[in-house]
Amino acid sequence: ETGVTQTPRHLVMGMTNKKSLKCEQHLGHNAMYWYKQSAKKPLELMFVYNFKEQTENNSVPSRFSPECPNSSHLFLHLHTLQPEDSALYLCASSQVQDLRNIQYFGAGTRLSVL
Amino acid sequence: GDSVTQMEGPVTLSEEAFLTINCTYTATGYPSLFWYVQYPGEGLQLLLKATKADDKGSNKGFEATYRKETTSFHLEKGSVQVSDSAVYFCALSVSGTYKYIFGTGTRLKVLA
Asked: Scanning every residue of chain B, which has its alpha carbon at the shortest distance from the alpha carbon of A91?
C-alpha cells in the first residue's frame, strides 16, 4: 500500500465512450500528477496540480480532461479516445515543500481503447 | 533541456550475479536523483534517492552514488534474486521545480 489508490485498475472502452479515472492519496500531500506510460517510451507527464490548481499541461489533447476537486482527489475524464491512447495511466503525489520532491505512485489504470 | 539516459534492456542475469544498470543525466542546476522500481502489474515504487553530489542512496541491497563529475547515477547490487525481476527507472527532479524527468526504464530478469 503506497498511500495512492487508483481506480479502476483496468478499463476497456470504445472510442465513443466517456469514462473517468480516479486517484486518491492518503498521504496529506498537496501536489498530484497524471502520467502516461506507453511501451518503450519514457513516462510522460500529462498534468500537475499544486494546491488544487493546475500548474502544468504538457500539450495533452483535449480529449483528456483533468479535475482536482481537493488536494486528496484527482480525476482524469476521458472522451472520444483513440487506440493510441491505450496505455498505463499513473497517478502520483508529493509534498511541494519537501525539497527532496519524492513522488509516490499509485498502481495505475491499464486502459485499452478499442 | 534536462534528460536521463538509461542502458537499454532487457538485462538477464542468473541468481546471485552482480547487477549494474547505467544511468547518466544532463541537467541545469542541482537535481535530485532517484531510482524507481516497477514490479509486474504495479505502479512505481521509490527504491533509493540521492539529493546532492557524492551522496549514496541504498535500499534492499541496491546502491547508487550521485557522481557529478561523470553525471551518472548507476544502480548496483552485489547479488540479485529472482524477486528483483522488474523494470527499473532512473529519474531526476528538475532543480527548483517538482517536475521529474524519467529514463525509458530497464527490464531486469533474474533466472533461478
From this structure: B43
B98 and A101 within 8 Å at the Cβ level: the answer is: yes
What gap in Å lies between CA A56 and CA B94, rounded to an integer? 14
Return the number of other C-beta atoms located less than 10 Å from residue B112's C-beta: 6
Give contacts of B42 with chain A, Cβ < 8 Å.
107-108
Minimal Cα–Cα distance from A60 to chain B, Å?
Answer: 16
Name, in order, each residue with C-beta under 8 angstroms of B1's C-beta and a sequence gap of 6 or more.
none
**pLDDT for A49-91, tens place per residue?**
987 777 777 789 999 999 999 989 999 999 999 999 999 999 9
Convert the pLDDT of each residue in B56-93 to its tens digit. Answer: 999 999 999 999 999 999 999 999 999 999 999 999 98
